[in-house]
Amino acid sequence: MNIQRLFTLLFILSLFTIAVSETRDGDMWWHLRTGEVIIDEGIPRQDIFSYTVPNNEWITHEWLSQALMWMTYQWSGLTGLMLLFAAFTTAALVLVYIRCDGRPYLAAFVVLLAALASAPFWGVRPQVFNMLFAALFVFLVEGFKDGKVQRRTLWLLPLLTILWANLHSGYLLGIALLVSYILGEGLQLRFGTRAARGLGWEGIRWLAFMTAACFIAAVINPNGPELWVYPFFTLGSGAMQQYIQEWQSPNFHLNIFWPFAALLAIGVLSFIVSKKRPAWTDVILFAGTGAAGLLSARHIPLFAIVTSPIIARYLLVSLEGSRLYPILSGQSTAQMTGRLQLLNWLLLVIGVVVAASWIFNKAQQNDLAIADQFPVSAVDYLEASGLDQQRGYNSYNWGGYLIWRGIPVFVDGRADVYGDEFLHFYRRTFDLTSRWREPLDEYEVDYVLMESTHSLFSLLAASDEWQQAYSDEVAAVYIRAE
Hints:
Blueprint: H1 3-19, H2 28-41, H3 63-98, H4 105-118, H5 128-146, H6 156-167, H7 171-191, H8 201-217, H9 226-235, H10 238-243, H11 258-273, H12 280-295, H13 300-318, H14 325-328, H15 338-364, H16 366-373, H17 376-385, E1 392-394, H18 399-404, H19 415-430, H20 437-442, E2 447-451, H21 456-462, E3 466-471, E4 475-480
Parallel strand pairs: 1-2
Antiparallel strand pairs: 2-4, 3-4
């Protein structure tokens, strides 16, 4: 085993290790419970978890993800889910790594930065499939441009779209990527010289045909053509943009967004210092996904996946003729003796042991992480006191966990089910407006379950209508005074 191969294996192992994280995503819980319903009873068509909007339409666009999550949970519990979704995340990054120039060292640097930029959005959540399938699309189309993927292999794109459309409505990201490639390659032929790795008009026409096939293939899902327009209703939701943090623009005062800023800056720098004029396609993909990430933090993983091969390619071109080029391009190799090979195997074994220990510790600490994030003990109190089937007003972030525990919710993470009008109404209490009592009174709420530090409890404590029934470091419960 040479040094380059050892580096690559340790790099992939490191990606998988950091992708294994505790199950802190609040929506995971209602996804799991929905998966159980799908397996046992079929796909629900209207809300079945809240007492506030029980007749609202529910487009379960993630039904296949939820079924997979539930079956995995039944087989291997939360640990199995952690490992499975870490594997999906790692697979997406490895596909991108393979399409990067400058393997292993320069490519690893760029992909690692992309991983850090997208890491805040990893976890046991269906959105991970958007990363994976975007990476598959980039892998195939970039391979087609390089001549490594044959034309007939692109028939995989519509087949992948069928699967993607049943796992998540983000399948439109794939179609948008294909359109960007078509537009960029067309502009390159029309206004520039054909790039060495660019497509001719015949290749562009074939890619356009595949794009149309993908759009048509997306209709093969339980919701049919309705899934063509569903994503646009989600993107147009003012309440989701206003209240859900990951739909908002990234706040660069928070250090979790610094890797994204660095990736953006390095990408722009790679275009500037490159000895080759940037291709239209690369500029469109970089600018389009970068703008999407700046408008909504939720789209940062798409930027990281799509632009990593572009950034690596232009960085490597800019280093041509320098002393670093032979190393970063992977051309420089060291002589391997028997002892060095044995040492490399030993280092790989040590890496595997360290990774396994890290992952084991994550799995062991998962229950504590859940208790720190969700109102485990407070829900135990609700069940013990008989309040669990009464009408409660709950934190939006905890609705999914309450669904998991079988408690009817006021609201949860399915913002599309509740609609903008209801979410604005819910926030009257949450934001302590002058009309904060209206949601509690209109829905005849019997108890309030919120984060113990929430200012709402100051109002409830000062009111003769409410009294504290339970409190811990995570959550508090107030009930109506008799």
